[in-house]
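From the shared-data thread, chain only:
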Amino acid sequence: MSYLSPPRLHFSGQFLADPSTLNNTPNNYNPQNDFPTAGRDALGLDATNNLDLFWNPYGRGTFGFVGCEVTKVTYGDGRSATTRDEDPIIGTAVASNAGLAPAKIVDLDPMQQNVSEIWGMSLDVGGRTSGSVSGDYREGPYAWIWLQAKGVPPGDTAGSGMYQSVLENLSWNPGSSDSRFLHELAQASPERLSINFAVHAHNSRPHMFLVSKKTVAAMKKAGVPSSVTALLAPLMQYRQMPTSTPGLIPTEAYFKVLVKEHAGAEAFDRYWTTIRKESAQPYRAPTPHPFVHGGSAGTIGPSSAGEPLYFTPARVLTPPAEQLSEPKFSPYNPPCTFAPAATSTAGGETTVAINLSNSLPTRLPGTDWDGDVLGNLFLCTFDARSTSPLDGVELLGRVDYADHRRFWTEGAGFVTLTTGADVSDRPLGLVRVDDEGNPQEMLLQENPYGVYCRADRFVYRINPGVKASHDPRTGNPATVDFYASRFGTPLSGLEIAVSLMSPEEARSYTNSTPGTGGSPGVDNLSIPQSALQPAAATVVTGSDGKASLTLTASDPGNPRSYVDGQIYFLRYRPVASGIHFVQAPDDLISIQIYQQNLRGLPAAVRLAGRVTWDNSIRYVLGQYGKLYPYMATIVELGSYESVKKNAAQIRQVLASDLNSPIHMPVTRDLSASRRALILRWIEDGMPES
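Structure, as tokens:
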């Protein structure tokens, strides 16, 4: 069972993803690089060692659903409801972290930003009248990220991706007018639920503010004294990227903090309105959503123990292999992208359910689907024996995507068709036809042999010195589970080859991704190769379609200097040749191995000997304080006095569960060794020197 199976509900609304972006480049981790000050050439002539702000330096690292509501339910018998009169759960909220600290959006590493994970999220679905269910979201990354919006340049706003996980620790709460749907869902899956949702059209374009000779002159003319504008001179050196115009500062929230910090509270209170007016640059939102918001639609359904957590081993439609080889397309920019589907047969009829929430292109971010690409769109089967998938096409039914409200807002991109055709061993396709129904182009197709395989969990954090039995999330060794299916049923005997990417391959891959590509300083990846074993292996699926591989990590040392640990990538694919297997570009295993022995860090930071603020802790906490300025609203991590004052709270959040919304650091990238170092220092009374 999964969200592809009834009973299931659909929801839609917005999501908020508010990451801090100062950690987007390894260069910002370098202690020699810092924020401009009055003593570092206030005229802005030398910005060599300045930090790159990227697009959201004051981000809080939070994630959440905003205004999401249940829009449709499908019962176990296949009938649906879309109004509150039919089922009281329609129109109720799908709320994240109600009354709690917000969930977090987390990159694995500055050198792997293409598998962003959600941590610390809980969901409440329903209301007082309908009843409700709440549960904890199992942390995990998005998959199948691609450039969905075809009419804009590549970037975050053009992108779309899909999250899938499970809701655990469920609490079922009856309502005054119980929902039939909730009753059926509780009966079908009382312990765990499957959730899948798409996120797209994220507005990552900040409002920019420019501090330059021209804008400073305008401030003076508008009444800001020279004594105040002189204090703002260091802001002329701030930069968004190495090639950006000096003095361009992203987001009003961050600019406001900088002005107050440099000009002082009294001058800020008196002149902020004028400074803002004269420095603000023209702004046009690139999506229909506010800054750091985007659109989301998803599905929740049953889940059984023993099933994969992060994907459904179902029937998956992929871009045709020959299409991906065309120069005008790239792995992240096909006309359409991966779509999971499931089939069930009863009474001589087959029901096909396909999730297109992340699969169809738009012209502009968050707008209607691109009819020029899709045209008359049909679900079909085709003849696997033919040299062309357009031969032997049998149309199963129209995909009516034109009604955006019904298709996306209400139906979450989920299409269900019933057919009398036997599709149990015939590959499915998504085909564009002409007005007479003649096939024109196969946009998505199932593997001709029905074969699909994928790793379940594919993002790992490993502390070499921590046993997996003590910490299943970050302990050593780690287990990767692969699942293979053929036309949606478990496939036994499939050999899957797994191999470690070389340093050159790792660098080439991560620099090609939408998440990491363009970030300066990506280097020295995947060394030493010996820190992850095995470097190559072949696993074979059993009768349940599952195969497992144990990964053992050793201390990689400190090959990236000021960035802790090391990043590795494992690729995998079926050994069998001639099966035309198509993988998403990110269908690989991403692994962060942390440094265990702390020798070699600045000032000989180590677990042995006397640990003080001056010789150890300031290098660890100070880096977080620099990379995450928003933390200063809670504690100034670069200040001994502030850290000592807030030591009890720091200890609490460091010791909290990794999937707790209050866990610190938000980025979940503090190694067990460094965490132990800080906690030991606190226990020892926090000596300064």
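Residues 8-17+61-204+292-446 form one domain.
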